[in-house]
Amino acid sequence: MAEIVYHTLIEQPVFRTYVFYVAILSLKLLAMSVLTSIQRFKHSAFANPEDAGPRKLKVNVNENVERVRRAHLNDLENIPIFFVVALIYLTTNPPVFLATMLIRLFTISRFIHSFVYAVVVLPQPSRALSFAVGYFITGYMAVNSIFYYLL
Predict the structure, then answer these.
(1) Which is nearest to 98 in space by CA: 130, 141, 134?
(2) What domains lie within the chain, and their CATH numbers?
(3) Do you know which Gene3D superfamilies this protein is assigned to (predicted)?
(4) Long-range own/partner contacts, residues 17-20 (CB < 8 A, 24 or more apart)
């Protein structure tokens, strides 16, 4: 029985879209860790004395490192909750086109957010708008799921 449910779920186009974009967003989270490390070494800005290694560099704060780190923290605050909420939303049998577009838009908004925050620093409201898109998509999915299961 469990195998039948698994095969039925995995064959659904919207679930396959979800899994694909979860993998993309997971790689993005991993890449942000690497980008933070690259910036730390590039600017010799280490958070802990032992991280500086044998060079005995001092703990140093650098705005370039901090921007990447804050973008990564923002991802860590928003992407995992999206994973959970989107999965719950998919159990409500949403229209395939709508669910697919919401998942794609969330993913695009998170990439844009990191890009304008940490790579090419653009003035507000660029970062706020990209954040808001993802935030409201997650909120829409959560509210929609609540109403689906409430009734």
Answers:
(1) 141
(2) 2-150 (1.20.120.550)
(3) Membrane associated eicosanoid/glutathione metabolism-like domain
(4) 17/99, 17/100, 17/103, 17/104, 18/86, 18/87, 18/90, 18/99, 18/103
Write the CB contacts of 67 (distance below 8 Å, at least 6 apart in sequence).
Answer: 117, 118, 121
| 12-54: pLDDT as tens digits | 889 999 999 999 999 999 999 999 888 888 877 777 766 666 6
Round to whole Å and give the CA distance between 86 and 106.
Answer: 10
Partners of 59 in the β-ladder:
46
How far are the Cα atoms of 28, 29, 61, 120 from residue 23, in angstroms, in the given order? 9, 10, 32, 25
What tokens appear for 62 in the block?
């650098």
Q: 46 phi and psi, to 5 degrees?
A: -100, 145
